[in-house]
FMN-dependent alpha-hydroxy acid dehydrogenase (Zopfia rhizophila CBS 207.26), 358 residues
Amino acid sequence: MTDGHASAASTRHIIQTPSAVETLAARPFLNEPDTGIDDALGQIPTHSLPNLTEIFGLPDFEWAARRHLDSASYAWYRNAAGGEWSYRNNLEVFGRINMKPRVLVDITNIKDSLPTTILGYNFSAPFFISPCAKASYANPNDAEDGLVKGAAAGDILYIIAAAKPKSSQVLFQQLYVTNNLTSTQAVMRRAEKAGYKALILTVEAPASGDRQRAHRFGWQLYKQLQNMTSIPIIPKGITSVEDARMALQAGAPAIFLSNHGGRQLDTSPSSLEAAIEIYQQAPEIFNQVEVYADGGVRYAVGMGRPFMYANMYGSRGVKQAIDIMKNEMALDAANLGVADLRKINASYMRWENNGWYS
């Protein structure tokens, strides 16, 4: 989310207490909201995909994936770290912030305000497809191509994990740092040559020695990487105001709030909580750089799992997921009384007298 498209994430800090964690763990977790699809399509044989015309919301894609994919493939997308508290929190944290609707607002042109820019590139909506690996698990034939082509058809950004652009389509590439900087630089040069417009440096996952090197050299490593490439590098995995400040001091053109979908450190804060902390303690950051976010998002900003499930249908499914998102975003904004998405801000949120907040 950019400053012009600040969402519910730009409100204030949520304090999670041990008792709150215990309360969450003690009650059932609703991973898929009830959209009525099981009543309508539950008779479809296992491993069969329902017709795409029967998919009306993003949760429907996961329902279809849970029944269609083999257990190992579904588990790859669905799993999370430890007791999955962070994954649960990613999904549920949005429900703990109340909306503050406005009325008697002219919302007739709300859809016209959906287009946005990300790092100066034009897109048709203020949300994107977050990087996820193993696209072939959902679609062995199309794999990454389904996501690339679907993003192109819907004119949104895809932060790709592993594939090459086939046209002038704007794509960002995910980057993991290894202990071999020569190898990392080779990856960056290939990304430049292939036409990627930015690198998303994943700093929240310890894979490939990434975290150890980052701890040893701090943000000096980021500056070193910047000097190895001509395209922007965006750090992904910011979950605190301190790291957000350090990223800006290191010259990051944007920051990406994420806890890796709750798949790395259980009890790590959600991107919403991180955004609220930054908004409370350093609100100027939202005016200084673009701020992106994912993790538990099912109705705006960056999403990973829902699009991986949609890719079971190839580019058609990805495009339909994009269309669903655009329609829901416009409807929700209209009901909230937002006339222009580019002007949404924290005044549309209400948090007084709520025990979760401070």
Remarks:
- The two ends are 23 Å apart (CA to CA).
- Residues 315-336 form the longest helix (22 residues).
- Residues 1-20, 206-217, 353-358 have pLDDT under 50 and may be disordered.
